[in-house]
Design goal:
Elements (H helix, E strand, L loop, with lengths): L1 H27 L1 H7 L2 H7 L12 H24 L10 H13 E4 L2 E4 L3
Antiparallel strand pairs: 1-2
Helix pairs in contact: 1-2, 1-4, 1-5, 4-5
Length: 117
């Protein structure tokens, strides 16, 4: 039971981190974000993660964790690949995203997964 609660909290944390980064980018570089935004991100991250029920099934939680991990990484990489707007790299939201991913994710050839704790 405690492991399930911990996983749900971690999912909410990473989801809110992506949501925050997207919101900051929407304020400081809306045109850039529109060019790089995956349409599914708008739906997935438009509401707070605490406002809807996270998956109860382990397999669904793992799938959401992997999806969020890959999406956060793609967003981070897109910002850091941007040569015309280097100030995007300096946003506190990008540093937060980097730190949260280092704390919560492990990458392997199979993809992104929540690190075991």
């Amino acid at each position: 039971m405690l492991a399930a609660i911990r996983t749900l909290r971690r999912l909410a944390c990473v989801g809110e981190t992506i949501r925050h980064a997207l919101n900051v980018l929407a304020e400081v570089a809306p045109d850039w974000l529109l060019d790089h935004l995956d349409p599914e991100w708008a739906e997935r991250y438009r509401r707070r993660f605490s406002d809807f029920r996270l998956p109860k099934e382990e397999q669904e939680r793992v799938a959401l964790a992997e999806t969020s991990g890959a999406e956060g990484r793609r967003l981070f990489e897109a910002v850091f690949a941007e040569n015309d707007r280097p100030r995007l790299r300096e946003l506190e939201a990008m540093e937060t995203l980097r730190r949260v991913w280092l704390q919560h994710y492990h990458e392997s050839q199979a993809g992104m997964s929540l690190a075991r704790r």
